[in-house]
């Protein structure tokens, strides 16, 4: 009986081994492809390799935007919540049995402790984390956090929670913070540009994602990289025309002036008139692009390019230039402004007093609305409109920004006499500060208008002549009288340099009514007069203190122009005849 039983057991053991051997041969030989396919589906993944976003640099190569490596942590909420439900079910059904209950309880408590630790790393409560997982329990993928520091990601992965994994990301960092914020812009959580240079140069900065085939374990952790499917191409670096030193001056002085005047907003633009490069562009109120909680549309609006307003008296030099170009007046012409107003039906264009007969220079220096209107009306509407159109008014400046204001320049066929007259002193037209700064460059280049750009240029672009050298120099000389003793822009003077420019004060049109208590003040000027190197345009919106361009904008212009000229090492003005100096300066000087 013992031998028979032993033989039976041996036969059963041999049969079992044979079945296992046959099964292993079947799986190894005949089912190998099928098993590999199943394993690959569970372990082999194609992952996207994010590209390194290109840097944004100033004209001297200083970084304004860089990317730093961070991690995105994700999970499969469906599997996590199903696993937790199983642990709870096992614990509830076995907690009365000592041995099994202790094991189920231990597993459940360990998992709960891991979730509590995970919530802590994510700066959440455990309840908030569970609520997030519950809301997404039908999904197979969610992000638990984006742009985490690598060390936090490592601590999360060390918790060994099923399906929790991390992927490579990049976070944008702006070393200059607020100073360049409106120009450089910022990216969203996915690394795509949403404002400023980050937006309009996004395609070049972003690069191209790659793809890799990798092996992950059952918990989603990376084991090895198998092969590269598509090569990752990093983004290109972009060099701007901005000069970090001049930008700092513009931003610092603008911030102080807006705060001192308790103004609603303000902007500064500094141009190299010979190359069209924007050397500085600052706006207030400001924002910190590194702090996303401050990213509100009111703060990050680039007003220098996006806001179009009626410019007021800064428009008067353009009216004089247009009249000279149309040959309806001469530089030595006199204009009778008596009795201090012009009547158009029920509407009057008026000066603050009867200024009598004045030269063109005095019209600009005393900022006579009547004089500017009479100058404008000496031209036909078509002549005046054509000149303004050649200056680029009513058209986007083309500097590169996506949100450039086109402004408004009504076609001359639609002008009534009062529209024609009011265009002489900057009403009935809307322009951005950048458009006005660009228009003023013709007085610094001897009448040649260059296209403006926020990107650095290695060579001077081809310009368009819109004004003769003689007429451009004549208007420049007239504008120099604005900053003399009896001019409205005396506070725009810069020690050691001859400056030419024009003040502007305009009432804001709100609900079809001009508000005397809502002003836009400005000053735009050129320096040095004998060898022009810079055009600076400043604007203060709704100053509570300082009710004109003379009081609010001219002092700001003086500070910015003064420091900017010293930054570029511009020589103090020599006693050169103005016409000869500007003819020599026309090719431009590099900065």
Description:
With 591 residues, the chain is α+β, with helices and mostly antiparallel strands. It has two domains: 42-71 and 169-240, Penicillin-binding protein 2a (Domain 2), CATH 3.90.1310; 244-585, DD-peptidase/beta-lactamase superfamily (Beta-lactamase, 3-Layer(aba) Sandwich), CATH 3.40.710. A hairpin with a 5-residue loop joins strand 8 (210-216) and strand 9 (222-230). The radius of gyration is 36 Å and the shape is elongated. The chain is built from 21 helices and 21 strands. 39% of the residues lie in helices and 22% in strands. The strands form seven sheets. Strands 2, 3, 4, 5 and 10 form a five-stranded mixed sheet that branches. A five-stranded antiparallel sheet has the order 12-11-21-20-19, with helices on both faces.
Quick overview of this protein structure:
This protein has 591 residues and is an alpha+beta fold. 39% of the residues lie in helices and 22% in strands. The protein has 21 helices and 21 strands.
């Amino acid at each position: 009986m013992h031998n028979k039983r032993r033989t039976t057991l041996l036969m059963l053991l041999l049969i079992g081994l044979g079945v296992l051997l046959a099964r292993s041969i079947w799986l190894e030989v005949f089912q190998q492809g099928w098993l590999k396919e199943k394993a690959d589906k569970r372990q082999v993944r194609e992952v996207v390799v994010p590209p390194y976003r290109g840097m944004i640099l100033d004209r001297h190569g200083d970084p304004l935007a860089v990317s730093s490596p961070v991690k995105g942590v994700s999970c499969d909420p469906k599997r996590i919540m199903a696993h937790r439900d199983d642990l709870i079910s096992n614990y509830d059904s076995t907690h009365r049995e000592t041995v099994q209950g202790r094991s189920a309880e231990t597993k459940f408590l360990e998992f709960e402790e891991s979730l509590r630790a995970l919530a802590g790393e994510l700066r959440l409560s455990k309840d908030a984390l569970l609520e997030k997982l519950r809301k997404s329990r039908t999904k197979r993928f969610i992000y638990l956090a984006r742009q985490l520091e690598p060390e936090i990601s490592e601590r999360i992965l060390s918790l060994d929670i099923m399906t929790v994994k991390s992927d490579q990301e990049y976070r944008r960092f702006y070393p200059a913070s607020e100073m360049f914020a409106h120009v450089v812009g910022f990216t969203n959580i996915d690394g795509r540009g949403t404002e400023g240079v980050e937006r309009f140069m996004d395609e070049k900065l972003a690069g191209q994602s790659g793809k890799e085939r990798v092996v992950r374990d059952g918990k989603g952790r990376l084991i090895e990289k198998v092969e590269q499917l598509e090569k990752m191409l990093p983004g290109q670096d972009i060099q701007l025309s901005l000069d970090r030193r001049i930008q700092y001056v513009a931003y610092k002085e603008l911030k102080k002036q807006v705060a001192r005047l308790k103004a609603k907003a303000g902007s500064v633009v500094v141009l190299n008139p010979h190359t069209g490069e924007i050397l500085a562009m600052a706006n207030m109120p400001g924002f910190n692009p590194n702090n996303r909680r401050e990213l509100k549309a009111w703060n990050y609006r680039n007003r220098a390019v996006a806001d179009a307003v009626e410019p007021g008296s800064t428009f008067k030099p353009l009216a004089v230039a247009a009249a000279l170009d149309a040959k309806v007046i001469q530089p030595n012409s006199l204009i009778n402004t008596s009795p201090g107003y012009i009547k158009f039906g029920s509407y009057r264009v008026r000066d603050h007093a009867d200024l009598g007969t004045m030269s063109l220079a005095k019209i600009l220096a005393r900022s006579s609305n009547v004089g500017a209107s009479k100058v404008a009306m000496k031209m036909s509407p078509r002549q005046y409109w054509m000149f303004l159109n050649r200056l680029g008014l009513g058209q986007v400046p083309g500097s590169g920004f996506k949100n450039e204001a086109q402004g408004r320049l009504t076609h001359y066929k639609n002008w009534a006499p009062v529209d024609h007259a009011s265009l002489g002193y900057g009403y009935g037209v809307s322009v951005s500060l950048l458009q006005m700064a660009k228009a003023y460059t013709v007085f610094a280049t001897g009448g040649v208008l260059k296209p403006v750009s926020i990107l650095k240029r290695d060579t001077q672009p081809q310009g368009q002549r819109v004004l003769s050298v003689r007429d451009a120099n004549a208007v420049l000389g007239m504008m120099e009288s604005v900053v003399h003793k009896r001019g409205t822009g005396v506070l725009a003077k810069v020690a050691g340099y001859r400056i030419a420019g024009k003040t502007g004060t305009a009432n804001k049109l709100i609900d079809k009514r001009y508000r005397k208590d809502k002003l836009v003040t400005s000053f735009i000027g050129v320096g040095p007069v004998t060898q022009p190197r810079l055009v600076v345009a400043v604007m203060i919106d709704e100053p509570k203190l300082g009710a004109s361009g003379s009081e609010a904008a001219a002092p700001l212009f003086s500070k910015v122009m003064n420091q900017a000229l010293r930054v570029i090492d511009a020589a103090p003005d020599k006693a050169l005849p103005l016409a000869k100096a500007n003819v020599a300066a026309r090719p431009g000087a590099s900065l």
